[in-house]
Design a protein that fits this description.
The complex is a heterodimer. Chain A is mainly alpha-helical. Chain A has helices spanning about 1-15, 40-50, 55-65, 80-85, 95-120, 125-150, 170-190, 205-215, 220-230, 290-295, 310-315, 330-335, 400-415, 415-430, 435-440, 445-460, 465-475, 500-505, and strands spanning about 70-75, 155, 170, 260-265, 305-310, 335, 350, 350-355, 375, 395-400. Helices cover about 40% and strands about 5% of the residues of chain A. In chain A, helix 6 runs parallel beside helix 8 (about 205-215) and helix 13 packs antiparallel against helix 14 (about 415-430). The radius of gyration of chain A is 26 Å and the shape is globular. Chain A starts with a helix and ends in a 10-residue tail after the last helix. In chain B, a hairpin with a 4-residue loop joins strand 41 and strand 42. Classes of the chains: A mainly alpha, B mainly beta.
């Protein structure tokens, strides 16, 4: 009997073999096993670019930059959209509409920080390593630039997160400084261009352009000019030129053209059903595009959650081309009853006339005066007969035209107004307008700036830069309400920035809410 | 109370032993184990020494029992309580002693065995004074037990007289009655009383059935079975007679209201499991108890046919549950299925059919009322009506009742056939069941056929057997994660369910009706969902265990138990073309198939000791248990379903779009447990239980794998003490326990290895001309290498009492538990850029939660014939309190953040319960401008200067003159302060009645569906809406207005974080009412039917509550948001009828 007991206990001992507990190996990749090869580094960088297709960056970002400014507004039945993105009436600081972009920017920053922390330790080709690090610096710079522009005073995270990170609020200028530092670093690491398979990755030119934009927003015009100069007069000048057909900058069939300085790469996944690029086991249904077209397209094609105000239309009509025609950029910018100059019966959208879409208003209202004006640049009306929920049309975040106008603005700001003329003319001439040097020669600094404001409206409306422009010029105020009634609700000292998510304030006492909220 | 007068030797020894018990337990054990000789020498001498003066007979029996070796059984009422006896003997034999003390009483004794003595009435014929005057012929007969053995000493009394006799040794009796219509009452200790009317019979042979004396009832406590009277821990034994009355698919839902300390929250979804919580919520992550079915462990409520269940025991305190160690912290529900008994094969057939209806619907407006109200609303705001709404006013064509459109009369069907029996060492129980639940919501249906085979064989020293359940469930339900209970009431009545006019809407080829630009609403068309997105899920399971037990000696046995639960889960979702909501993302048609294999293997070796020596009773179990738990899955999907010849082809290979596949091992862990329990009892009077378990779990980092879970419990049966002399108390035992348990089910919500920094490979970048997606990887969530078990430490004191001749049973418990190292998510502010999602939660063991409460159950058994009844009542209080939430940072004011906040009006704050309501309080409606003007703070500042008459008035809690989140305050709890259950069972002749009441009091529920309805925006309105207007200044609801930039207070009226949506949810419910009829025996016996019964029942017939939503019994939105009514599917009202035959 003692023997039996002995055997039983021996069996216990056998069964409790410690090998039982070593089973995590090869079930999941961990950070310990990752970050060893160039391929790992590449996948780390890939995760950064994936951020641009997340829900908020691929949709709410447009609402925030376009609708909040004076060029757009919302008549959405979803009043939260109106309150958050149009009329400056945000009551809930945890709502996804106003926190989503903030969150996505930081998810991007985390991805960049992981690359920056781990890739230096990988033994691999030095050029490629530099490129990957440069891409991480560039994108981190962009995410901070975006946060500085939209949320102003935020936390700065420069390493992979740990549970005990309680950074303090950095004022907006410091956030721009961080972006500037990252862009500067990126300019030294990135290649000037890529092969066909890698188009869309950040380039030296993109880094200089973003660097210049960051300097512009902080009114450091000399530095801005110097940064833009790389693209305008420096080594990059040969890489970029304006394309003859303005409209082709916004069509899916002509992506990554010579005017494109930095382009968010979008592709349509026909099987997509979600935008969360961390959702495991749903990768095949992940969106890789933008969902803005159905939200901006006219009813009944889209939901029309965002529309353009009427007044920018008039800006285009102030001047005709040298051949006496309407500025061609108007039709490229807006879909409305007179996108075709002959009116709604000729205006084509999605292969149908404006009239047949049921959008022609009652005959007593003169053409060109209806309120139904849609931003066209993100739409797929020239390639499709309708919109699906997502779109593969790339977002040209920085076009060369933008760089030229900013370069001119930087020169003008330093008193070099005359020197600024040629770059404005390049943009005008592509549109078929007479050179400014002919039409309005010898403008003084302030008039030239006013002229630039007009030029930027006609060239860049509906591309998401209007908010930055107004902020840079100090024009954000209730004074804008004459053309955008939403600005009657603008509260100076508060609405320059979105609120910091309450969740973060609750979690970290070192953070401060933006003023006025 | 009489003074303690005992001076006998045994008393001194008793005191000594008691002293040892209380102080030096260890010494006692050494004595008990090592000194067999002591016990033996003591035991050989069975002679009795007694010295007692003027005590009740009962005390004498007790005193003799206390010397060991002899036990007495007697009917308490039979003893002459008023008669006191004195005795002084030394080394006397039992016979001598009994003769002495029974002299002068109408009692005699029978030795049922060497040491079991029955005290009974003397046969009547021996007592001349009782002989009846009228010498009618005697009634004779024989009384046997259910095994056919004669019962000697049964008391036979002519009802209403002193005419008494008792049976002889061969079970026969003879009695002369005074009246031919007399009724004879047959009474025997341990057996149910029977009454027989003579009605001219001269021979009466009857069989007495054993009384279910609940003190001797076997209770399964995990790896061991003990008598109920020997329990030391808090163990709830479910009265299966009540549980069996409930119509439901799971065992859990049959328990509501039956056991104190057990909270059951129900849902109406077919095939869904209720939420069961034992003694409150001790974790933020998981509150599910551990289920043990015939020794098989499962964290989830198992798919089990409730009809197969023989008993359910609930281990509530640390001592009771400690044998299950790291998995027992949320309590343990031990379910034992039925087994056969030796005898002829018995076949039972039962069928039950029930009609299910939704007890309540939202009272919302029809089209005409809606249009009128909507028109008023737009007119109030000076806004033009949307064109589609205007069109319906001019030409009303549609009037849809959306709630009717999505509901139907459902049904429950439950059919059972069982075959059981046994002979020559083997018993068997075979049961077949078909259960069907067609829910009240369209598109929902659940089927479950199952088969169970339980057998057990004894051969010599070996016992072996198995319990096997085979079942397959099929569940049909709509996909899309759309909650019909939100959508249907808020959907507009002026939208048709379907119509050709809608086919022009993009992505809506079938013409489903939903919101548009012209008729704006974002409500989903659930009828469309049910048609366009269909999920079919089937789960085929084998759950079973096999065991072998070998008895080395009568007191030592070894048991090997091995079991497996294997589940083959298959889920298929077919998404047809079309959308069901305004601004829906139109998806590609697709088919998605998921196959999952779940395996759970268990292997246990246990040694059981069970030994009585003298007055000492020792039982113990030691063992080792090993668990392997693993889930593998494969998911494949393809877009582009093809329709050919009008048929939609829905297989992966017929789809022509983009295919995709993923798979892996989602769960994989091992656990080793070393367990042990020692129960020691001295003379049934002092009971001690020591339990411990050491668990190792692979889900933790190498340093955190091992956990120790010890506990101790003691009980003292005061009623056994000689000095205890309260005649109306039959049995009184007080208990105390203390110990530690682990909560590991919370890990199921995490991943298999929460300590590892796992990469996420879901991101995709697109580059280049081709823009093909390429994989991105990074660590998306934070990991915590130190994560380990949550620990629950619990103390319990209680008592069990049987009083008033065992008619009343009382159990009461008072407990306090503290969970430490509770897993909590650190605040992961968005600036960290991390995500939290399934399999990627980042948690730390940092919080502390306390639960304390009182549990009381009282049962009254009335044993009178023919109207027999019993009444059980119980009450539970659970006081849940957060003690610490770990380091959650500091708030803007520099105060330490001492709360978790799942949404901005629900908090788990230190000093409050989990999920407490933290809101801005409302104070009615502003009736006039002057009321607005006079609503000022101390410094005279207007608090709501922008408000208009008819707006909601909010309480400026901090007095700063404005309303914002800083005005939130605690306004209630989602946890009931008092939970009660009441069950009444009665039988009268062939009729039976069962009534079950549940009463839940003192909690508040957030009515989110009403919040949507009363927002007035993009939704239908409540029919009983009473909006303020100049013409209706006393209106209870805010003014009707459109939310627009020029009228910002409309959205302020609708703020979610206010008490406007909070309601008192206390309720009393008639949970079940059943009326049964046992068909008279002779009607059916020719057909071979031994028993036949028909019944009708109503479940959830009546609910008394002030709650305005559909039902106050709700599961809520997870543990942290238990009281959040997110469109909870209410439990159905079920009207059933059933029949049951035994052959």
């Amino acid at each position: 009997m003692k023997k039996t007991l002995y055997y039983i206990f021996a069996l216990f001992a056998l069964a409790s073999c410690k090998k039982d507990f070593q089973l995590q190996d090869n079930m999941a990749i961990t950070t310990q096993s990752f970050w060893k090869t160039a391929a790992d580094a590449n996948e780390g960088v890939n995760s950064i670019y994936s951020t641009y297709h997340r829900d908020a960056l691929a949709r709410n970002h447009y609402f925030m930059t376009i609708l909040r400014s004076d060029e757009g507004y919302s008549t959405s039945p979803n009043t939260d959209i109106i309150n958050t993105f149009d009329v400056f009436n945000i009551t809930d600081y945890t709502d996804y509409l106003n926190t989503g972009v903030y969150q996505d920017d930081y998810i991007g920053i985390n991805r960049c920080n992981q690359v920056l922390a781990n890739v230096p330790n990988i033994t691999m080709d030095a050029t490629l390593k530099n490129q990957y690090l440069g891409e991480a610096y560039f994108n981190r710079g962009f995410f901070y630039y975006d946060l500085a522009t939209l949320y102003g005073n935020v936390a700065i995270m420069l390493h992979p997160p740990t549970p005990t990170d309680y950074p303090a609020t950095s004022p907006q200028d410091s956030v721009y400084d961080q972006a500037i530092a990252d862009f500067t670093k990126a300019t030294t690491l990135l290649p000037n261009s890529y092969n066909a398979a890698n188009l869309g990755r950040a380039t030296t030119g993109a880094a200089y352009a973003m660097l210049g934009k960051a300097y512009m927003q902080t009114h450091q015009y000399a530095q801005a000019q110097q940064a833009f100069a790389w693209l305008v007069t420096g080594p990059g000048a040969s890489l970029y030129k304006l394309v003859p057909n303005y409209r082709s900058n916004f069509i899916e069939t002509s992506e990554n053209n010579s005017e494109s300085v930095w382009e968010w790469q979008n592709a349509l996944n026909p099987a997509d059903s979600h935008d969360d690029d961390t959702q495991l086991s749903g990768e095949s249904q992940l969106n890789y595009g933008t969902s803005i077209p159905p939200f901006f397209a006219p009813a009944p094609i889209g939901f029309t959650d965002g529309q353009a105000r009427r007044w920018p239309v008039w800006e285009f009509l102030q001047e005709t081309t040298t051949t006496g025609d309407r500025d061609p950029r108007l039709a490229a910018t807006f879909l409305y009853d007179s996108t075709d100059v002959r009116g709604p019966d000729y205006t084509m959208a999605y292969g149908r006339t404006w009239t047949s879409l049921g959008l022609a208003t009652d005959p007593s209202v003169a053409h060109g005066n209806t309120t139904e004006v849609c931003f066209r640049k993100e739409l797929d009306d020239s390639t499709m007969t309708g919109e699906v929920f997502h779109s593969g049309n790339n977002y040209r975040y920085i076009r060369y035209a933008d760089v030229l106008l900013l370069y001119a603005e930087a020169l003008n700001a330093q008193g070099q107004t005359a020197a600024a003329y040629p770059y404005v003319d390049m943009v005008r001439e592509r549109a078929g307008l007479a050179p400014l040097s002919t039409v309005k020669p010898g403008l003084n600094q302030s008039d030239f700036l006013n002229q630039l404001k007009h030029e930027r409206i006609t060239e860049l409306t509906g591309e998401g830069h209007r908010w930055e422009d107004l902020a840079r010029w100090g024009d954000l105020s209730t004074n804008l309400s004459y053309r955008d009634p939403s600005f009657a609700h603008f509260k100076t000292g508060r609405d320059e920035f979105m609120p910091i998510p309450q969740y973060d304030l609750d979690a970290n006492p070192n953070l401060k809410q933006n003023p006025g909220y | 109370m009489q003074k303690f007068r005992c001076r006998a030797l045994f008393c001194a020894r008793g005191t000594l032993i008691k002293y040892l018990m209380m102080t030096k337990l260890a010494i006692l054990f050494i004595v008990a184990f090592s000194t067999q000789t002591f016990a033996k020498s003591y035991g050989q001498d069975k002679n009795i020494s007694l010295q007692l003066e003027n005590v009740q007979l009962k005390k004498v029996f007790k005193a003799i029992e206390n010397q060991g070796f002899f036990r007495f059984v007697y009917k308490d009422d039979a003893l002459p309580h008023e008669q006191l006896v004195s005795i002084s003997v030394k080394n006397a034999s039992l016979d001598d002693v009994l003769k002495k003390i029974l002299a002068g009483t109408p009692l005699t004794y029978h030795k049922l065995s060497d040491n079991l003595i029955a005290i009974t009435h003397m046969p009547a014929q021996n007592r001349a004074d009782d002989a009846p005057a009228d010498k009618a012929p005697p009634i004779t007969g024989k009384i046997t037990n259910t095994k056919g053995e004669p019962l000697p000493g049964v008391t036979i009394q002519e009802k209403g007289t002193n005419n008494v006799t008792s049976t002889r040794d061969d079970g026969t009796f003879s009695i002369v009655v005074t009246s031919p219509n007399a009724t004879l009452v047959f009474t025997y200790v341990g057996y149910q009383q029977q009454q027989i009317q003579i009605k001219d019979q001269s021979t009466i042979n009857i069989t007495l059935t054993p009384e279910t004396s609940d003190l001797n009832e076997a209770v399964v406590i995990g790896y061991q079975t003990v008598r109920k009277k020997d329990l030391t821990g808090a163990t709830g034994v479910v009265n299966m007679a009540n549980a069996g009355k409930i119509t439901g698919g799971t065992v859990g839902e049959t328990l509501q209201g039956l056991v104190p300390g057990v909270t059951v929250r129900n849902q109406g979804n077919p095939g869904i499991q209720p939420t069961v919580e034992i003694r409150g919520v001790a974790s933020f992550t998981a509150s599910d108890p551990l289920y043990v079915v015939d020794g098989m462990l499962a964290d989830d409520n198992p798919i089990l046919n409730p009809n197969d269940v023989a008993s359910v025991q609930i281990l509530k305190d640390a001592s009771a549950a400690a044998i299950y160690g790291s998995r027992a912290g949320n309590g343990v529900i031990i379910i034992t299925t039925k087994h056969g008994t030796t005898g002829a094969p018995k076949i039972s057939v039962s069928a039950k059919y029930g009609i299910q209806t939704l007890p309540k619907k939202w009272n919302v407006m029809n089209a005409a009322d809606y249009l009128k109200t909507d028109q008023t609303e737009y007119a109030n705001s000076g806004v033009t009506l949307p064109t589609g709404v205007q069109a319906q006013i001019t030409n009303p064509t549609i009037n849809t009742n959306w709630q009717d459109a999505i509901t139907r009369t459902g049904n429950d069907q439950d059919y059972n056939v069982t075959l059981s029996g046994g002979g020559s060492g083997t018993t068997y129980f075979i049961s077949g069941n078909y259960y069907n639940d067609q829910g009240v919501l369209i598109g929902n249906q659940y089927h479950r056929p199952s088969l169970r085979v339980n057998t057990e064989t004894h051969k010599g020293r070996l016992t072996f057997g198995e319990n096997v359940l085979l079942n397959t469930s099929q569940n049909y339900y709509p996909g899309g994660r759309i909650n019909a209970f939100y959508e249907a009431p808020s959907m507009l009545p002026i939208i048709a369910v379907k119509g050709p006019q809608y086919t022009t809407i993009p992505s809506d080829p079938a013409g489903w009706g939903f919101g548009t630009n012209d008729v704006p609403t974002f409500a989903n068309n659930y009828v469309a969902v049910a048609n366009l997105d269909k999920i079919y899920a089937t789960d085929s399971r084998i759950i079973g265990n096999a065991y072998a037990e070998f008895k080395f000696t009568p007191w030592l046995s070894y048991r090997f138990n091995t079991g497996a639960e294997v589940s083959f889960y298959y889920n298929k979702e077919v998404r047809d073309t079309g959308i069901w909501r305004y601004e829906n993302q139109p998806p590609a048609t697709s088919v998605t198939e998921t196959r999952e294999t779940y395996t759970n293997f268990l292997m246990e070796h246990t040694l059981n000791v069970n030994k009585t020596f003298g007055l000492h009773n020792l039982s113990a179990v030691f063992g080792f248990a090993r668990t392997i738990d693993k889930t593998d899955f494969t998911t494949a999907s393809a877009t582009g379903l093809v329709t050919a010849g009008g048929t939609l082809y829905t297989t992966l290979s017929t789809a022509q779009g983009v295919p995709s596949v993923s798979g892996g091992t989602s769960v994989n862990w091992r656990q080793h447990g070393y367990l042990g329990r020692i129960n020691y009892g001295f003379n049934d009077k002092y009971l001690l239980t020591l339990t411990g378990r050491i668990d190792e779990d692979s889900r933790f980092g190498p340093d955190k794998r091992t956990g120790y879970f010890p506990s101790a419990a003691a009980a003292w049966r005061i009623s056994k003490e000689l000095w205890f002399n309260v005649p109306w108390i039959d049995d009184l035992k007080i208990r105390g326990s203390y110990g530690q348990l682990g909560i590991s089910s919370s890990l199921d919500a995490l991943s298999s290895f929460p300590y590892l920094a796992v990469l996420n490979n879901a991101p995709r970048a697109v580059y280049g001309v081709n823009q093909t997606p390429v994989v991105g990887q990074y660590q998306a969530a934070l990991n915590n290498p130190d994560v380990h078990w949550e620990t629950r430490t619990e103390g319990n004191i209680g008592f069990d009492a049987n009083i008033l001749h065992n008619r009343v049973t009382i159990a009461a418990d008072l407990y306090r538990s503290r969970s430490t190292g509770v897993l909590v998510q650190l605040p992961q502010p968005m600036y960290l850029g991390v995500v939290q999602q399934a399999g990627q939660y980042t948690v730390v063991n940092a919080a502390t939660i306390e639960n304390k409460g009182i549990e009381l159950s009282v049962t009254y058994h009335s044993k009178e014939q023919p109207f027999k009844w019993d009444l059980e009542g119980n009450l539970t209080t659970i006081d849940n309190k957060v003690i610490s939430v770990g380091s959650q940072g500091t708030d803007a004011q520099g105060n330490k953040v001492n709360y978790l906040q799942p949404t901005d009006f629900i908090r788990a704050e230190v000093g409050h319960s989990i999920g407490a309501w933290y809101m801005i309080k409302t104070a009615g409606i502003f009736k006039s401008q002057s009321e607005i003007n006079s609503y000022v703070n101390k410094s005279g500042q207007m608090i709501q200067p922008n408000a208009k008459p008819g707006d909601v008035k909010y309480v400026d809690q901090n007095g700063d003159g404005q309303i914002n989140d800083n005005d939130r305050q605690f306004v209630g709890t989602p946890w009931p302060t008092l939970q009660t259950g009441l069950q009444f069972n009665a039988s009268y002749h062939n009729f039976t009645l069962n009534i079950q009441l549940v009463g839940i009091f003192g909690y508040k529920v957030y009515d989110d569906v009403r919040r949507v309805l009363d927002s007035y925006q993009l939704t239908n309105f409540r029919k009983d809406l009473d909006p303020w207007s100049t013409g209706n200044p006393n209106g209870k609801d805010p003014r009707l207005a459109v939310d627009q930039p020029s009228d910002p207070t409309v959205s302020i009226n609708n703020m979610a974080q206010t008490s406007r949506w909070l309601e008192n949810a206390s309720y009393v419910r008639v949970r079940n009412l059943e009326l049964g009829y046992n068909l008279p025996h002779n009607t059916w016996s020719k057909a071979g039917i031994s028993n036949a019964r028909v019944y009708i029942s109503g479940q959830n017939l009546l609910t008394l509550t002030g709650y305005k939503g559909l039902d106050p019994d709700l599961v809520g939105n997870g543990i942290l948001q238990r009281g959040f009514d997110v469109g909870n599917w209410p439990p159905s009202r079920v009207l059933s009828g059933g029949i049951q035959f035994d052959f």
